[in-house]
Write a structure and sequence with these properties.
3 domains, Rossmann fold, four-stranded antiparallel β-sheet
Amino acid sequence: MNVQIDTAIRQKIATLLKALSKGLYEREEAIGLALLSAVAGESIFLLGPPGVGKSLIARRLKYAFSDGTSFEYLMSKFSTPDEIFGPISIKKLKEEDQYKRITERYLPSANIVFLDEIWKAGPAIQNALLTILNEKIYRNGDEDMKVNIRGIITASNELPPPNQNLAPIWDRFLIRLQVGNIKKFQHFLQMITDTEELYDNDIANQDKISEAELELWNNAIHQVEVPAEVLNTLQLLKIKIEQHNSSPNQLDNQIPLFDRRWKKIVRLLRTSAFLNGRLQVDLMDCFLMVHCLWSKPAQLDTIKEMVSESIRKHGYSMAVNLSMLKKEVEDFENDVDSEIKVKYAISEERLLPIKEEFFELLKEEQKFEGMLLSIKQFKNLNTNEEQVTNFYDENGTLVNRLKAKKSNKEYHVEVNYNSVIYSYPLKTQKVERTETIYKKPHPILVKHWEERFLKLSDYMTQQQANINQHAPNALDHLRDNLFVEKSLSEIVEANLNEVKAVLQQLRLRLEKIQYAYLNL
């Protein structure tokens, strides 16, 4: 089924994000990722100290939905399942001998859930959360209760403590984001002087997302295309992480990733593309993976570099398969050269530099002191007029100054010593160089080459057309991604422009090859 995505959806989400972020300074990214994760049906973990607005983000998020209800709880080591999932129904227990909870107004009946200090929850709560996070099912007595939780936001000022079997629940949080204090002083002043009530539901009803819309969007998101450049980026990134994990230097800094997380990441990228009004994931969406891959904050820079490098060097390049194309053109050029070019070696004498700055006079008898003259001075000599010339001993020390000129005989110098002219050869060496002559190829070969040329040329034309077809749209919206920082668009543009440039260079090279065999 071809799903037509209404671009009005993007405008709706942009308006909603603006309203949700009102009064929340430097929290636009957190609000955006929280809404994205909720629409994708995923969870988000906020890492940060107390008092930076983590709970406020969750409370604001519930206003994004027209029928949104929320559940919020601050965990402690004394928290009980009754406080999270609801108390046991005494009536059910007495009259029907059923162990069931009253879940209304508790986590299983909420749309948006915020659990603060999540790592303090006990094993019973964590085990129930695992099923809810992964399968959206809560086991209430002997009944599997399907929960309608759109987004689960968890928070803590610390990472899961080691050796407490918290890895499974930590892995369920697809998006992980650090939230800190306000950085810009102007924003800080605005925040502390702002008197607006941030907990009020001031989102217009028409801007909210309804249950019916979510159902339609869910089906449409499945239809969003994941193109070759995105799949290649995912594959390269996976390889980079595996190489990182296999390095002996990274034994204590592993980046654990399992197949389930990769599948959820693709769902997140599709959701981003859909909410941005696109039928196709693009490379800008891929930057969202930075928030999905780290396990420790110290890994963030490494992962950012991995993601950026995968996009910068290999995004569109692999989609066009530039490596294959370069090799095809190179092989074609070599085949043509081997037929039309005949190379042969020529041996010739050349002056041999001594100590890189002198030429040596080959003297049978030492009529005068000095056996070396500078290369620079030799080049200034001519055959018509003598010039005062410096002569040096074998160590490069100046020992004589005599009149000299070049001889008409190649590589010889004539020296005037005591009014007698002595002609001396300069020391040379034999050097081989290659000469090339061209021969006209057989017509059958030319026909074969023309077929090969057309095949390569057509492939380049097709790839250029694909880029031209998608690139203008891609470049138009690169800086308008609702969930990704616009400055990252420069990385995508660099890769796209590089692919265009390489394609153009290869086309010129291909045309030169054709010109060579057609114009002999």
